[in-house]
Amino acid sequence: MEKRWVIKDADEDKVNSLQQDLKVHPVVCKLLVQRGIYTYEAARKFFRPVLTDLYNPFLMKDMQKAIDRINTAIANNERILIYGDYDVDGTTSVALAYSFFYSIYKNIDYYIPDRYLEGYGISTKGIDHAKQTECSLVIALDCGIKAVDKIAYANTLGVDFIICDHHIPGDEVPAAFAVLDPHQKDCNYPYKELSGCGIGFKLIQAYAQHHQIAVENIIPYLDLVVVSIASDIVPITDENRVLAFFGIEQLNKNPRPGLKALIDISGYEGQLNISNIVFGLGPRINAAGRMDDANKAVRMLIAETVEMAKNGADVLHEKNVNRKEVDKMITGDALSMLHNDPDNDKYVSTVLCSNQWHKGVIGIVASRLIDHFYRPTILLTESEGMLYGSARSVKNFDIYEAIKACADLLEQFGGHMYAAGLSLKPENFEQFKQRFDDVVRANIKPWQLTPEIEIDAALNLKDITPTFNNIIKQFAPFGPQNMDPIFMSAQLLNNGRSRIVGDNHLKLGVKDNNRYNAEAIAFQKGAFFDAINNGARFDICYTIEENVYRDMKTIQLNVRDIKLN
């Protein structure tokens, strides 16, 4: 699909002012201003994170109540249950809280709900399990902020809850003993974008602070935090940037046995980054809950021996291989349904259903379909007489609100702007499919149906130097609201070294009007070779990376898109 190129703006006065202070390339200053960094001090804090930049955890509403309740539980030898969701954020949260508190108190257990039998969040079965195993305190992580009825039920059984969640509360907050969620209206915590595991880290930071435990003793838990930050796709800004920075450092220098085993089986060598987590470690951890039992992910993450960790990583790797096979099958099936549907082009959305699809994988496949047909997408599968669906959206379109407009046809739904889940009766499917498409058509703008590449700045080839690249590398860790900068260079020509390599990839040698040269790689762009080789001028947008070959490092442009002039 052809993509729209959009070049981001930045306040020129702020860019010029910052450039006078920093004395670096103006494009670097533009990148900083785009990220809300306007002063020398803010830039220093951005490029040189320190652990003292972390906020005081007791600024979070109910934190003191939570610590007091944990202290009481430990003093009275109450049994504590660590409860969490089945995805990466949930399992890392449970592993963090369980391993920290287990190191100082042994009367403790953990619980992950079954994705298929219990669904997301706090379940009645989970509460009953707490009661049956004599757990009088449950610390719930990455879930619970909307579990009003479930917490009311727990209270009737004498089971106290501390909720540690990062999702948006509903109109009513559950009557738990303590609720830690920066999104609460009366919570004055200065940063609102923590992951679920990030909230868990603030809890152990508060406990350590209260008991005068040295900060060095909680730094090892940051490897779990950065895995959650990367996998849950939260903004890597402010406090998340500090947590991710030191988490990556921990992951590279001294990861816990479970993550080390996962790194090894993923085949990574050298320094890991956020992308390695998103595409390598995260999917393997997620595969446990998608294909089988998320408790297997927790067991691996809390493993204390290399052998236990390796066995756990082997299991997760196998589950992920299975997940990939199922993913590929469903994707092929869904694409075939779309290509064979004569009415497909009439829709501005994709809504597909099959009783043969795996419930744990349809969300991934919905995202893949958007790569082929760029429009809001819902995939559903049948289970026990009901249809269960996962929804994914395109940029700037609120799929949650579109689903909400069809609420009378649904049994349940929930989610946010870009991803949601829903269930409905099979007899309502056709009506829902049409209604949903009507709602999308009425609200989506035509340009939202074309994929977009946001370009940070135009750049001349002469400016792509090792010094410039070294500064760009210091913008890492990259992620939402601090993505790897995308640059554009225009009116380029083939310098005679361009060729097709591998499976239709384009190895480019480019030059500009001033005869400056650069090397680039454009994956799956072999179709442009003939025009470029015949002298056509072209524009490219790209990220800058280092290519290592036989211990030699060279700068290479990783091309995202090409436009022939």
Question: What does the model show?
Answer:
The chain folds into 3 domains: 57-318, inorganic pyrophosphatase (n-terminal core), CATH 3.90.1640; 341-449, Roll (Diaminopimelate Epimerase, Chain A, domain 1), CATH 3.10.310; 454-564, Beta Barrel (OB fold (Dihydrolipoamide Acetyltransferase, E2P)). Strands 3-2-4-5-6 form a 5-stranded parallel beta sheet, sandwiched between helices. The two termini are 18 Å apart. With 565 residues, the protein is α/β, with parallel strands linked by helices. The protein has helices at residues 12-22, 26-34, 40-47, 63-75, 88-102, 124-132, 148-156, 196-210, 222-231, 238-253, 257-266, 274-291, 295-301, 306-339, 362-372, 399-404, 429-443, 466-473, 529-533, and strands at 4-7, 79-84, 108-111, 135-141, 160-164, 178-180, 350-353, 377-383, 386-392, 412-415, 419-424, 452-455, 457-458, 487-494, 499-501, 505-511, 517-522, 538-549, 552-564. The longest helix is centred in the middle third of the chain and has 34 residues, at 306-339. α11 (257-266) crosses α14 and α14 packs across α15. β16 (505-511) and β17 (517-522) form a beta hairpin.
What's a concise summary of this model?
The protein has 565 residues and is of the alpha/beta class. It has helices at 12-22, 26-34, 40-47, 63-75, 88-102, 124-132, 148-156, 196-210, 222-231, 238-253, 257-266, 274-291, 295-301, 306-339, 362-372, 399-404, 429-443, 466-473, 529-533; strands at 4-7, 79-84, 108-111, 135-141, 160-164, 178-180, 350-353, 377-383, 386-392, 412-415, 419-424, 452-455, 457-458, 487-494, 499-501, 505-511, 517-522, 538-549, 552-564.
